[in-house]
Design a protein that fits this description.
alpha/beta, 45% helix, 15% strand, globular
């Protein structure tokens, strides 16, 4: 299994030092913030060259969701994602992680009545994916469509939801990202969801059931890892979460060491 990480507060701020630190911890790759990549492309290229640590993917770094209620903000986000995908192509990154939206609306909290119909939701997301599918084709990258849990997004909550969008739009450069934390809330069984969508699964995020470092909670990672291996998954498993410990660096290292044993 190849493990990557997003940025953490205890990582060095200097880009070169950040890459060196991540590699020294034993990670196989770095999932970078899209804005950090675009605004520091030359420096990121140098860090990749000198450390040998690849940029796996990008996550975040844009200002409008692909399913945004505000059309101007949605279109602005698409332009920013396009620039991130172009930058990823220059550094050999696989693609960008995009949810339908985050924190925009949930049926689980008041007012519980969305400002847009479900047909409107689907149109907005499909319009965005159609545009990004073409960008990904041009840049040789991939859009990883991320289901979020019901409290963070109302449009795409399960791997099956993401699959439905991809199949409806017949997108050739959009795949599914499975996130252990969100899946633990939404899926009936994590391993089965991974298996059922193995043909479209292109990326994985990892955190424990409480969003803290893997191994500190209750998720059975070995069962899902065994399933991913059995299904031939060869992508990255990227840490996305917080750390609950007095010494976050030591806890992060301990978590990675633990996952390496599974």
């Amino acid at each position: 299994m190849k493990f990557g990480t997003q940025n953490q507060a205890f990582f060095p701020q200097d880009i070169q030092e950040k890459f060196e630190y991540i590699k020294q911890m034993g990670f196989d790759g770095f999932e970078i913030d899209g804005k950090l990549l675009v605004n520091n492309l030359a420096e990121v290229k140098r860090a990749i060259e000198t450390t040998g640590l690849p940029v796996t993917t990008a996550c975040g770094g844009y200002d409008g969701w692909i399913g945004d209620f505000i059309e101007e903000r949605r279109l602005n986000g698409l332009q920013q994602i396009e620039k991130i995908l172009e930058a990823l192509a220059e550094v050999g990154g696989k693609g960008i992680v995009v949810p339908g939206a985050w924190g925009m609306f949930t049926y689980r909290l008041p007012p519980m009545t969305p400002p847009r119909s479900q047909d409107g939701d689907r149109k907005a997301v499909h319009d965005s994916l159609r545009f990004l599918d073409a960008v990904a084709a041009r840049t040789g990258t991939t859009v990883f469509l991320e289901p979020l849990n019901r409290y963070q997004d109302h449009m795409i909550n399960t791997l099956a939801d993401a699959r439905r969008y991809i199949e409806e739009g017949q997108y050739q450069h959009v795949q599914i990202i499975g996130d252990f934390y969100h899946m633990n809330i939404e899926e009936d069984e994590l391993s089965k969801a991974f298996h059922d969508n193995r043909d479209l699964l292109g990326h994985v995020h990892i955190a424990d059931n409480h969003r803290y470092q893997p191994g500190s909670g209750s998720i059975d990672f070995k069962r899902s890892f065994d399933q991913l291996r059995a299904d031939g998954y060869d992508g990255y498993v990227v840490y996305e979460g917080r750390i609950r410990a007095e010494d976050p660096a030591a806890a992060y290292q301990e978590s990675l060491n633990y996952l390496r044993t599974l």
